[in-house]
Amino acid sequence: ASSAAMTGDMESAAASAAVTASVVVASRDRGHLMLSGRFNSDAIVAYMKEVKSQLETRDVAVFMVDASTGQDFGQMTCEGLYRAKGMVAFCTSEYGAYTGAGYETFYELEFAHQNQLPLFPIRLCDQWPPAPLNNERGTCQNRFVFKKSLVFAEDRQMTNARGVADKIAASVARLGIFRTKLQL
């Protein structure tokens, strides 16, 4: 599919979620897209940071947990989700795995779904939806949330952060997720 068609499809699929979530996202406490991904490799973290940077240059407010020694990444995750107007899911093959850690992509996805946050999935793996190895609970939730009608951006080689950011920024703008006072 062409880039333009992909962006249009992503907007159409997310539009119904945005309308349903209008009450949820109206809160003054919400103001960014939460970037959700497994921080289990340097390559994925670097890619997430590049997409984050690209979105910021397009004036899309984003949040990515970045905890250093002595900081509580769990609290940062909770606050990031609480203030999210939508979520970008960096879907590697292990995305959504239930690990029992308590602060993981499984719970981030569950929160986004339960609170009707618009989802902007980025497909980074071969199997869709992601099916974490030996993880039935995560695989089940991924199949439920990442339904066939939800359009994703694709960048399996993690070489087109700019193009992915373009698609997300265009969808966010068309959906009116970050309305200014003049638009209200």
From TrEMBL:
Q: Which organism is it from?
A: Cladocopium goreaui
**Record's protein name:** TIR domain-containing protein
Q: What's the domain of life for this entry? A: Eukaryota
